[in-house]
Amino acid sequence: MRNKDALKIYSLLLKRYPDALDSPTTVGRGTPFQVLILTILSAQTTDRAVLLVKKPLFSRYRTPAALANADIPDVEEIIHSLGFYHAKARHIIAAAHTLVSEFGGKVPLTMDELVTLPGVGRKTANIVLYHAFGKNEGIAVDTHVKRLAQRIGFSGTSDQDRIEQNLMRLFPQEKWGDLTDLLIAHGRACCTAKKPHCGVCPIACHCRYFQNLKKTS
Ligand code: SF4
Question: Which of 11, 20, 78, 210 has the fewest other C-beta atoms within 10 Å?
Answer without folding.
Answer: 11
